[in-house]
Amino acid sequence: MQIVHMLQDWWQHQNWLEVIGVITGLLCVYLAAINNIWNWPIAIISVTIYIFIFFEARLFADMGLQVYFFVVNIYGWYYWSKKPAGEKKPPVTRITQKEIIIAIPAILLFTFILGSLLKYTTASYPYIDSFCTACSLVAQVLLARKVIENWLIWVFVDIIYIGVYIYKDLHLTAVMYAIYVGIAIMGYIDWKKDWKRQVN
């Protein structure tokens, strides 16, 4: 009975904006993992909510990332709607050597520049936040372009984010990111099966 009261008390102290952000966030990632185009409009709702949440939490790199996600979600919605004739959805691809060569230095450079700027603000964890933001920038483009390896980057980044959000008392968001890890693993497995079917 005491556990029930504790849960009720915890629930009453939750931010309703965060609750809606979590629900839409989980739904859009799940839909992306099962290759459903409706992930994009729902993602647009989720990132709009998280712009406000991260501003309040002073996670400025994460806030800026949501603005970027907003733009890339529109692009992803457009790109996924342009499927080849006779296909139900655009084909899944593998990451190229050129994409790897561009992505790694871009992540390192972005982390250094943004982290160096944010350390002069009230930002929490400027370099960790910037590194996760940089990885997320790359992963989101790969997701929009239907590159399988986007899911591996998301697993890595989401694990780091769980720790950050626990320390910032964004517990629901931390739980959401833990679930994201599972969905990202599922997405990787599912997309890899699709890719193998295409190859065969």
Strand count, sense and barrel status of the largest sheet are: none
Low-confidence stretches: none
Total beta strand runs = 0
Query: Which sequence of SSEs, written as H and E, runs from N to C?
Result: HHHHHHHH
Structural key phrases:
200 residues; mainly alpha; 8 helices; globular
Overview of this protein structure:
The chain has eight helices and no strands. The protein has helices at residues 2-12, 16-33, 39-56, 60-81, 97-118, 126-144, 150-167, 171-199. It has 200 residues and is mainly alpha-helical. The protein starts with a helix and ends with a helix. The chain is 78% helix and 0% strand.
